[in-house]
């Protein structure tokens, strides 16, 4: 295949070998038939992308000389796919971090239209951002769901309707860019740890309190995804055994008491007033007893959950993010108090609220994309692209097939376990 030869000769930075992309797409199409014309369009687009990629790489090598030297003028695309909206922006490297530049893009996720429609919406956001900045060199994409970043797969996302979607491969094909996948909350955690409320600490526990609850552990500026990429399901710590049923199938999970959506739902159940978590906070401030009760329950539950995390992990700081954290000190103070009361044997870590707000997810995937560029640039062998895939595996077709087959064989086992985790893993937006 001409494309394979071209990609491998021109760049070591295409994230997934062509063989793997083709196989992943094949498996995806078996389950989600795409019209032949669309397949043809995709291939045409790929050829254009490959040509673009070749030119980009050549000009970058010519313009900047040696590989391994960070290039501060680089720009990347950042996209954050949540259950409610798909957000995107172009990001640029600044001294010590990244910044979002240009107009941001926001589109409704509209999962009711089906998994293919959500995918197309994501691709159109990528296209729009590439139009804003044709010189972008990579893209970072954060997903609300169970993500296997190394394989470029979204294992499961209840809110997006995706299962075993080879999103990195599809997006790479669509844009001609190397794609870095990340989990939405762990991406936000990365940004808070490096640029936000946790930037002076080495060991940061970040919690997103949105539609659901999830957390992320950042050690020395790096995400810890766990052994199978499912670390941080903080919302499913049981804090009230026998309590309300949770979307995961269990009862009394933290998420049933302290997510932004459940705070609003509990207020509705108690008062009949249909409103959001921010309004519940405002009502509490105005002296509403029902709002106060629900808020206290949420803070207590969070304190209990964070006491468990502190006992296990000893974080240097706890950062609260997501919609509920917009309440600021109104949330931080009672949570810090509840945490301190439960930690009878040690001083509690400081509790802070996000300083990056709803930009944390986008900044995090942009950071990951820049990190990936730096790793690739520091590769010692200029011929690396011809012999070794970016995942470190040999990139010959035989090995590529083996890697893809392993990924495929592992799917059913994980698939059966995922719905429980995934259904509640969408913690943002
Ligand atoms: Zn649960």
Automatic annotation (TrEMBL):
**InterPro entries, alphabetically?**
ATPase_NBD, ROK
Instruction: Provide ranges: composition bias, Low complexity.
Output: 383-413
Region annotation (Disordered) maps to 380-429
Instruction: Name the source's superkingdom.
Output: Bacteria
Q: Which family is it part of?
A: Belongs to the ROK (NagC/XylR) family.
The protein here is known as: ROK family protein
Q: Which organism is it from?
A: Nakamurella alba
